[in-house]
Amino acid sequence: MPISSSSLRGRLGECPVCGGKVELSRSVTYREEPCGACDTMLWIRAGGVGVARSVIEVPLEVLAGRDVDHMERRLLKSSLESRVLILDLRQVGFICAEGWAVLARTRRQIVAGGGDLHLHALMPEVSRAFEALRLDREFELV
């Protein structure tokens, strides 16, 4: 099952949501600000424009052993498109050892690149596992 994402990337100087003009600056490496036309929060840098936050819905079986490698690649790709990734884990009731490793490794890589990874809508058993592994100190659980 594919991982879905709401991440968008626009053409150079255009909002990816409404197509409105976005002023690029070569002197600023990165900034976030709302689009003047549609108010969508955007990341803006000399090389392009993208939506500042992406929500990725993670299907049940992805963190339970199937498609873990695919998820890691998708998260890293999405981190290039959006500054902050929010993983929607409402369907995930179990995370295998490989899934925990991928979450921790991916978060380290995203944070090293200046981004952040947040976890949303955890089931109680997954939330308890995060606390037991002390990963609740590493991840922002929203």
Can you describe what's shown?
With 142 residues, the protein is α/β, with parallel strands linked by helices. It has a single domain, classed as Transcription Regulator spoIIAA, CATH 3.30.750. Helix content is 27%, strand content 23%. The protein has three helices and eight strands. It has helices at residues 68-81, 97-112, 124-132, and strands spanning 4-5, 31-34, 41-45, 48-51, 53-57, 84-88, 116-120, 140-141. The strands form two sheets. A five-stranded mixed sheet has the order 1-5-6-7-8, with helices on one face. A three-stranded antiparallel sheet has the order 2-3-4, with no helix packed on it. β2 (31-34) and β3 form a beta hairpin. α1 runs parallel beside α2. The two termini are 24 Å apart. Residues 1-8 have low confidence and may be disordered.
How far apart are the termini?
Answer: 24 Å
Radius of gyration (Å): 16 Å
How many structural domains in the coordinates?
A: 1
Proportion of residues in helical segments: 25-40%
Strand content: 15-25%
User: Structural class given helices, strands, pairing?
Assistant: alpha/beta
Topology order in helix (H) and strand (E) letters: EEEEEHEHEHE
Mean pLDDT: 77
In the CATH classification, which architecture applies?
A: 2-Layer Sandwich
> What is the number of helical segments per DSSP (H or I, 4+ residues)?
3
Report the CATH superfamily.
STAS domain
- The total of beta strands comes to 8
Please outline the major beta sheet. Answer: 5 strands, mixed
